[in-house]
Amino acid sequence: MSGVEILMIVTIVLQLIAAAIALMLIRETKYSALWISCIITLLALSTERTMQLLAFDGHNIPPLTYAWVGILVSVSISISVICARLLVNHVDRMSHHRRLLENRLLTAVLRTEERSRASFSRELHDGLGPLLSSAKMSLSSLSKSELNDKERLTLQNTVAVIDEAIRSLREISNNLSPHVLNSFGLVRGIKNFVDRSVALHDVKIEFVTPLRDERFDSNIEVIIYRVVCELINNSLKHSSCTTINISLKLNNGRIAVVYSDNGCGFSYKESINIGMGLSNMKSRISSLGGSLRFNSKPGCGMSAYFEVSENGNIPQPAKRKQRRIKRLERHGKKN
User: Fold this and answer.
1) Residue pair 48/70 in contact by the 8 Å Cβ criterion
2) Strands 254-261 and 302-309
3) To the nearest 10°, the Cα dihedral for 138, 140, 145, 148?
4) How far apart are CA 59 and CA 74, in angstroms?
5) Element housing 205 (H / E)
6) pLDDT tens digits for 40-94?
7) Alpha helices in 177-286 (DSSP H)
8) pLDDT tens per residue across span 51-66
9) With CB atoms 3.0 to 4.6 Å apart as the test, which of 72, 186, 189, 290 could cross-link to 181 if both were Cys?
10) Separation of alpha carbons 316 and 305, rounded Å
11) Neighbours of 91 (CB within 10 A)
């Protein structure tokens, strides 16, 4: 037996084993048409190799038989390729639907979180705030009474503590649900947060934008505001920076934010595991169909960039892919 004949026998055995595996996959998966066409192809190929092996041994195989087996191989391969393409389209559709579902769930979670923040903020502002103000007024009325120096000092200290509690309450309420953002929009909201951050920290923050009083969807404004605030807080807490630059622009219906600081920088792979909120920021931007990119390394500062549609739609490349998927779905229905 020659080496070519041995290779043919090995090829036939491998093709039969592959056909048996494909037969088992019919039961384990729902893509029966693909596996059936693969089985037919493998069996036809093994038949073709068997006829060639018989021809080596001197058997006379009619040419018409060769032709029909070749036609069967060609047809079954073509059907396998078509089935594989349909399978890829199906997987694409399922992946697209899964991403849409994930975005919807994430958006629902974020909106629920913001509603909870707003409700808690109102409870603090409208419930506890008036109580503290009433206590301050009651104590202030005592200042008109005749008190000795020790009692007057105690009264002044108590009023000062209540004043500090009222200021802290307003700060907490504003952080939970920024009233400036809700009333005047994204630009005023970010400017207000920047001014408060500069007043509390020895850092220069430059916020540049050509926008003025433009309003966007409330969900978009809140998410961009939260992400910018988180970036500023991270820089102030972790980077030891002295300068922060923020740019907010609107280009062709896309809201773009460029952020940078001159701090110590960081390694993204390490920081993602130590609770700096980077994954949370990326998730928020992703819920709007955008993407958040960081550029940083230790000792070289940090920069971040993200953009989203002003209507909160998915980005153009994803739109084109979605249109392609819809065309494939229509084509599948016709067939």
Assistant:
1) yes
2) antiparallel
3) 120
4) 25
5) strand 204-208
6) 888 888 888 888 888 877 777 788 887 888 888 888 888 888 888 888 888 888 8
7) 179-184, 186-200, 218-234, 268-271, 278-286
8) 888 887 777 778 888 7
9) 189
10) 17
11) 10
